[in-house]
Amino acid sequence: EVQLVESGGGMVESGGSLRLSCAASGFTFSSYVMGWFRQAPGKEREFVAGISGSGTTTYYGDSVKGRFTISRDNAKNMVYLQMNSLLPEDTAVYFCNADPRLIVSMMTRPLEHYGQGTQVTVSS
């Protein structure tokens, strides 16, 4: 069973940084694409970033390109999201996702493999 636990959220001022972490268990971590999604109040959940099982390929949503960096540590079953130059519109609950398919599949038709989420609030 896929289990994901996100952490690292909090409240920061615009222009600040946060690093989110996701601890994964219950599956062969290095065989899964991992990703981050976010959902703001009243909005649909949106793709933020994805990384291949080996960590060599990454994809980002247009709104976070150049500001966010996804990475993974397969020895620790961890995936991270470094968020820099945060904006108030980045305020959302951030969710980790795990997918045995390709990154493109996760981006367009994500499986319901989410953790409980971690709140990120950016003040102006």
Report on this model:
The chain has 124 residues and is mainly beta. The longest helix is centred in the last third of the chain and has 6 residues, at 103-108. The protein contains 1 helix and 10 strands.
SSE inventory with pairings:
Elements: E1 3-7, E2 10-13, E3 18-25, E4 33-39, E5 46-51, E6 58-60, E7 68-73, E8 78-83, E9 92-99, H1 103-108, E10 118-123
**Biggest β-sheet description:** 6 strands, mixed
State the assembly state of the protein chains: single chain
Number of strands: 10
Helix content: under 10%
The radius of gyration over CA amounts to 13 Å
How many helical elements?
A: 1
Q: What is the molecular shape? A: globular
The proportion of strand residues reads: over 45%
Question: Could you list some keywords that capture this structure?
Answer:
single chain, about 120 residues, mainly beta, six-stranded mixed beta sheet, four-stranded antiparallel beta sheet
